[in-house]
Design goal:
CATH class of the largest domain in chain A: Alpha Beta
Strand order of the largest sheet of chain A: 4-10-9-8-7-5-6
Number of helices of chain B: 7
CATH superfamily of the largest domain in chain A: Type I PLP-dependent aspartate aminotransferase-like (Major domain)
Largest sheet of chain A: 7 strands, mixed
Strand order of the largest sheet of chain B: 1-2-3
Shape of chain B: globular
Number of strands of chain A: 17
Shape of chain A: globular
CATH topology of chain B: Sufe protein. Chain: A
Structural class of chain B: alpha+beta
Largest interface: A-B, 14 and 14 residues
CATH class of chain B: Alpha Beta
Oligomer: heterodimer
Radius of gyration of chain A: 22 Å
Number of helices of chain A: 14
Distance between the termini of chain B: 21 Å
């Protein structure tokens, strides 16, 4: 069956509007994706019929809420092929997921050890490790990248050594779209006994990940980048890792017993879920996952790759157009500059013509520093974008460039 | 020599000519292009206006009771906006700049049109210009 993008667009009410008198062309999907009716309806249903606090009530609504929330945990478990539902932790987002691991490792890591990340990370996968290293005296190392925005693995065996406590890196770069060689890096980390964390912020909406096939210790997902609600993330962790990792936050839901002197913690996953969870978000995320899987992640990825290839090719005909990040293996992100123009100016003039793109550093200052640029304009694609939208984008960009030069 | 109020009225009149925001932006961009660029050496950290999304450098010189303004920016729309402010404030008495009520931005619709971060940047430029004027007028 061919990919029916018009049928998909009908499921996203927000797309059918005008911005500054022009049809909205939403190309800021790497920042956040729009939500299908299934998600909006699931949240409405939850607040219309089921709202109650979870895990503690004997009454019917509480039971329904708990069942609905725990069913999503099972869906996420199946989606990434985790071994058991207890390995799926709901967090406030990927930043929270990574901080949970980085904080917990403070009790485990030794001062002579090191943490290895890459030159291609989002700030959320840099700063928690800097904080961990500052607290513990461990060293922070970076796997470098080349001018195409690909990781340079020639130094991998030197950087990841027997003193490496954890190797943490993203599957797909949010700033450049580079798809990283996950298995190569994981294999080196495992050879020296280091823990591993893969940040799936950008892979969640574009790729099917099997955490057992990867044999990765930690993996993260962001609901709002996967067509679900904001304020919700996933931390997958292997049971044996989660059991030794101390909890990041204390409070309700995460305890077994509390006396005035001390508390014992609940078993995983609840040990890491202090406080009332984001129930509505979890239920909405479940609907988003189901919707995404009903379209099919492979079909979505193929559509997005076709859009990326078409956009890269068609926009390259604009005089002075320069793609930032030209890795051989890329997903869904087109970061660019146009000679003689500033990305902020492009962003404003595109917005005036209904085109939503991102401008700036994309929370990746070290990447921009390496390219010696202040920022880029970035178009990123999702399941509902069309080739016609790319044509509109190109025409709008040409008009902007003519005005600016 | 026109007063600050007269300068503002002229700008409002100029912009009334354009119905579409793309045309208004085009005019702002042309004003930005017309403003002389700084020498590379003049683009100092000290001259950067704090709170702007793009880099905006602003320089002020006292000439008797009046103030001369010079500015540059790395993004052209920001430069066009600062060029409009210079158009209104340049070579005006320090004491009047400090006390001036700027209504042309609202009349043009620019204030409502900018995103909150950009509107903050605009306010920072005005604040910085008034700050210079105030310092010069109290020095007199």
């Amino acid at each position: 069956m061919s990919y029916n993008v018009q049928a998909i667009r009908e499921q996203f009410p927000i797309l059918h509007q005008q911005v500054h008198g022009r049809p909205l062309v939403y190309l800021d999907n790497a920042a956040t994706a729009q939500k299908p009716l299934a998600v909006i309806e699931a949240i409405t249903h939850y607040y219309t019929k089921d709202n109650a606090n979870v895990h503690r009530g004997v009454h019917t609504l509480s039971q329904r809420s708990t069942d609905a929330m725990e069913a999503v945990r099972a869906d996420v478990c199946a989606h990434i092929n985790a071994r058991e539902v207890a390995e799926i932790i709901f967090t406030r987002g990927i930043t929270d997921s990574i901080n949970t691991v980085a904080f917990g490792m403070g009790a485990i890591i030794q001062p002579h050890q090191n943490v290895v990340i890459t030159a291609l990370e989002h700030h959320s996968n840099i700063v928690p490790w800097q904080m961990l290293c500052q607290r513990t005296g461990a060293a922070l190392r970076y796997i470098p990248m080349n001018d195409k925005g690909e990781l340079d693995l020639s130094t991998l065996d030197t950087l990841v050594d027997e003193n490496t406590a954890i190797v943490a890196f993203n599957h797909i770069s949010n700033a450049l779209g580079t798809i990283n060689p996950v298995k190569t890096i994981l294999s080196r980390a495992k050879a020296v006994g280091a823990w591993t964390l893969v940040d799936g912020a950008q892979s969640g909406p574009h790729a099917k990940v099997d955490v057992q096939d990867w044999d990765v210790d930690f993996f993260t997902l962001s609901s709002h980048k996967m067509y679900g609600p904001t304020g919700l993330g996933v931390l997958y962790g292997k049971r044996e890792r989660l059991e030794v990792l101390p909890p990041y936050q204390g409070g309700g839901e995460m305890i077994a017993t509390v006396t005035m002197e001390e508390s014992t913690y609940a078993a995983i996953p609840h040990k890491f879920e202090a406080g009332t969870p984001h129930i509505e978000g979890i239920i909405g995320f479940g609907a988003a996952l189901n919707y995404m899987n009903s379209v099919g992640i492979d079909a979505i990825a193929a559509h997005e790759t076709a859009l990326l290839d078409y956009a890269t090719k068609t926009l390259s005909s604009i005089d002075g157009f320069r793609t930032i990040g030209t890795a051989a293996n890329k997903a869904s992100v087109l970061s660019f500059l146009v000679e003689g123009t500033h990305p902020y100016d492009l962003g404003v003039l595109l917005d005036q013509q209904g085109i939503a793109v991102r401008t700036g550093q994309h929370c990746t200052q070290p990447i921009m520093d390496q390219f010696c640029i202040a920022g880029t304009a970035r178009a990123s694609f999702a399941m509902y974008n069309t080739f016609e939208e790319i044509d509109l984008f190109k025409a709008a960009l040409e008009r902007a460039v003519t005005m600016l030069r | 020599m026109s007063t600050i109020a007269e300068k503002q009225a002229l700008l409002v009149e100029e912009f009334e000519f354009f119905d579409e925001w793309m045309d208004k932006y085009n005019h702002i961009i042309e004003m930005g292009k017309a403003l002389p660029a700084f020498e590379a050496g003049d683009k100092n950290e000290d001259l950067l206006v704090q709170g702007c999304q793009s880099k905006v450098w602003l320089k002020a010189e006292q000439q008797g009771t009046h103030v001369r303004f010079f500015a540059d920016a790395d993004a052209i729309i920001a430069k066009g906006i600062v060029a409009m402010l210079i158009d209104v404030f340049d070579n005006q008495p320090a004491i009047e700049i400090a006390a001036a009520d700027l209504d042309f931005l609202e009349k043009i619709g620019l204030k409502d049109h900018l995103s909150p971060t950009r509107a903050n940047g605009l306010m920072s430029m005005i604040k910085q210009m008034k700050f210079y004027a105030l310092a010069f007028s109290s020095a007199n």
